[in-house]
Amino acid sequence: MCIADQVSAALILVFLAVVAASVRGDENECVYTVYVRTGSMIKGGTDSKIGISLQDASGKGIVVSDLESWGGLMGSEHDYFERGALDVFSGRGPCGLSPPLCKLNLTSDGAGAHHGWYCEYVEVTTTGPHVPCSQTLFYVRQWLATDAPPYQLYASVDGCAELPGGYDHNRRLVIGDSSASM
Questions:
Q1: Among 77, 79, 69, 71, which Cα is nearest to 45's?
Q2: Which regions in the chain score pLDDT beneath 50?
Q3: What are the residue boundaries of the PLAT domain, all occurrences included (predicted)?
Q4: Nearest to 122, CA basis, from 50, 182, 69, 70
Q5: CA 9 to CA 59: how far, in whole Å?
Q6: Are 139 and 176 contacting, i.e. CB atoms less than 8 angstroms apart?
Q7: Domain boundaries in the chain?
Q8: CA pair distance 144, 110, nearest whole angstrom
Q9: What is the fold of 3-175?
Q10: Measuring CA to CA, which residue among 50, 21, 68 is closest to residue 143?
């Protein structure tokens, strides 16, 4: 199955999850869809577990310690976080966050034969019953590794202080430098 087909299948699953949440009447949970682009450079992929935390401007957030087990949508045989790959995850979390999400923290457990990982970007879409859809693109462009600068197993991107006044829910929020490269 090609990546376009996998992403299409993932989007259908997200839609079905939103419908299921609406039918069930669970108004305290939203659907979070996370797209992660791994860098295409040599040794850019990893076998480590990758976690994510997301926050709104008030500091409320959601923490996922292992994206793959939380909501990996690429199939049971898929090898996540490989060089040049776009991986899709979707799961449920609290609806109490105020859009847009403006702070991201990525973590690696540093385990596995290839612990180093280069993340290009993370894009997050949230939606739920009686909640406007929100989309944020975080440009990370950093190694999470102990043997490559900045020699740490986490990366943070915080755009909360720079939020535009009168945020338009119909537009994707972009945080980080889209033109930067390694």
A1: 79
A2: 7, 9-11, 13-14, 16, 18-23, 25, 182
A3: 30-158
A4: 50
A5: 33
A6: yes
A7: 3-175
A8: 8
A9: Lipoxygenase-1 (2.60.60)
A10: 50
